[in-house]
Write a structure and sequence with these properties.
By secondary structure, this protein is mainly alpha-helical. 88% of the residues lie in helices and 0% in strands. The radius of gyration is 30 Å and the shape is rod-shaped. The model has no long low-confidence stretch (mean pLDDT 89).
Length: 69
């Protein structure tokens, strides 16, 4: 009744154990990369918004100087 696992069953067990460790590590790594990428994108977005605001303010100042003699 007490059977030893065959070599094939041991390979399956090791494969499942390796996948069980690899998948969570992979998911955590991908989440970290996504957060890092999002941070860079947010910085670029803020920089673009600041540039657009600056252009709008410059354009408004130019229009005011043209209107006033």
């Amino acid at each position: 009744m007490n059977q030893k696992p065959s070599p094939m069953n041991k390979k399956k067990i090791y494969l499942l154990a390796a996948l069980g460790l690899f998948i969570p590590i992979f998911l955590i790594t991908m989440a970290f990369i996504a957060v890092k990428s999002d941070k860079k994108n947010q910085e670029k977005y803020k920089q673009q918004q600041a540039e657009i605001l600056k252009r709008i303010e410059e354009k408004a100042r130019d229009e005011q100087t043209k209107v006033q003699p």
